[in-house]
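Supplementary Note 2. Why include the ligand at all?

Several targets in our set were suspected to adopt different conformations when bound, so apo predictions alone were not considered sufficient. For every target with a known small-molecule partner we therefore ran a joint prediction. The input for glycine is given below.
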Amino acid sequence: MKILVIGSGGREHALVWKIAQSPYIEKIYCAPGNGGIGDLADCVDIDVTDFKALTGFAFKKSIDLTVVGPELPLTLGIADAFKQRGLAVFGPSKEAAVLEGSKAFTKNFLSKYNIPTSDYQTFDNSEEAVQYIHDNQPPYVLKADGLAAGKGVLICQNRSEAFQGIEDIMEAKKFGDAGNRLVIEEYMEGEEASILAITDGERFVTLPAAQDHKAVFEGDKGPNTGGMGAYAPAPVVDDALLHRIEEEIIRPTIEGMKTENRLYQGVLYAGLMITKAGPKIVEYNCRFGDPEIQAIIPLLKTDLVDLMMEVAEGRLKTKMPKITPRSCICVVMASGGYPGSYQKGKQIYGLDDVNQDVMVFHAATKKENDQIITSGGRVLGVTATGKTFLQARERAYRAVGKIAFDGAYYRKDIGHRALKR
Ligand code: GLY
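The joint prediction is reproduced in token form.
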């Protein structure tokens, strides 16, 4: 088979790494790819939103399956564009990807289908949002309605932070048009978990629970990022809780989307808060979580190409993916200053010094004159497995210690909740 992966981050590197292990594979392409993906796939310089060029490329190269990594092309309808040309694609349609594309749609959907989530209100103008803050007690959770690269959620501990947040999102348009609408939610206490379900729109399987670390600083302090590290399986979700999540959240979501004529095929990522009252939806994403998938894929024994092809053809047969009984952790190395401004173009040293059994997934790198240099905020996902969580963690951090670039920053407490357990 010839596979095309769309995207350029750590998620796409992990996907390409796993796809390359499938016995079906003749060739992998990645558009646009990055400095690490280039070792396993032919990187093609096409933008992820240039559907005409991407479908044309897939057609010309007789691609058997295209796997879409990021949310932006999915919410813009890339899966529809591929299907219209008769090309097999893994990823939900535009109508289905709205679960990530609009927080307001999702909140209404959750309420209509009685899927547990926090109370909320949606605002189209800032005056009403300000009034809501006056009328309610902190803390407040402010969410830009549209896509904001994981950064459009603000947890505000007091009124003045909330007023500033409303100003930033709705008036200064810090996240662009994503802030035309605002959702303000009740703050949920608990521990977060990410459940990724692979579905053909009717049947689904779930992957091991993962836990992300969204805040930039240790102790979960500071602004939200796309994710500073993750591990799986996350012990906060035991078998009984996973079953509950499947029945109370995943199944009704898939059935509800079918009822809405928005058949959901691809990965449904449920971002959850495990509260005292049970699991509740924080957000859905319409693609593999990143960095979560970097910590899940090394545990997956089932052939991912098989699984994705079954979904693309709407005939999911796999009942339960085979999972290796190990632990896996991914520590993100980022450019100093991220998620604010940071410098790029720094040479990365030590990539060849890490042990062979550690996977260094590239998230924002470029190859220039045979050197790997940084090209974005989250640069690498240093990922290791172990018989135990502690062993995996120790291996990953040992590898992180061998890699260096000017301004490199990483959290030293990835997995702190699992450690406490
Ligand atoms: N790690 C969070 C996300 O993928 O959205």
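The first strand starts at residue 2 and ends at 7. The chain has a mean pLDDT of 95. Comparable summaries for the other entries are listed in the accompanying table.
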